[in-house]
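Hello Y.,

Per our agreement to keep a running log of every chain we model this quarter, I'm adding this entry. I've kept the format consistent with earlier entries: sequence first, then predicted structure.
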Amino acid sequence: MSGTVPCGDSPCIGETALVKVGLLHPGEMGAALGAVLRDRGHDALWASRGRSDATANRAEQAGLLDAGDAEELCRRCDVVISVCPPHAALDVARSAAGFAGIYIDANAVSPETSREIGSLLDRFVDGGIIGPPPRESATTRLYLAGADARPTAELFSGSIVDARVVSDQPGSASALKMSYASWTKGSSALLLAARALAQAEGVEEALLEEWELSLPDLEERSVTASRSALRKGWRWVGEMNEIANSYASAGLPDGFHRAAAEIYRRASGEPDREAPVERVLAGIRETGDRQGFR
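Predicted structure for the entry above:
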């Protein structure tokens, strides 16, 4: 590749080095990261085999180059970044078994899962993303941990992604992500559950009136949480379970986030711009009604 710094048999990454980076498998976040890397001058690749038309459209819009399949992508790339639903992270890593370059798992998984993924690869960086897909600066942080965390952060130097090294111990970046998301997404699940309970007991209107008096932002937050749950709840089920596993491994109660996983499982569905709250609350209550709860 034009402009690439020769690195011999293993990839070297520095502020002036341009490398080939593969994305497995780019959803909205992965495609956006690929676009950032491409804008930095790196070649950004993806593997189209078995992927949906929606994924292909995102990859094309991000300017990603198609390597065909995961095996070819790993053969051609110096660095591979996995950005996928948490429940698929281990299988995606297994598809890259034997990859000699730097493998970055940037998924919402527990420290234990992260370390298990790391055991499959020679050079592993644990990553945790906080914020939306990067479109502008100061919105998205990529936390990194592992022996190759610092050179990995340099891939994003000067870009709109704020790459930060947590430590040289894999699992640390995932622990930070789990701690953060346990509140942000966990509290949203609790908010939806609280409103569902009030509705089930016939006091939803009174609850909304009390929120207006004492916690005036909660009604709008519940609307926002409903929209997010409809669109991404299916993905957050796995994330809540990974968070629960993190709590359990630390000797902390894990039941709250097991319940949050169930809330998101019931809440997910087709997006509804007109009545997101009604759709979500109906979904949360439906299974409970069938099981004999009110």
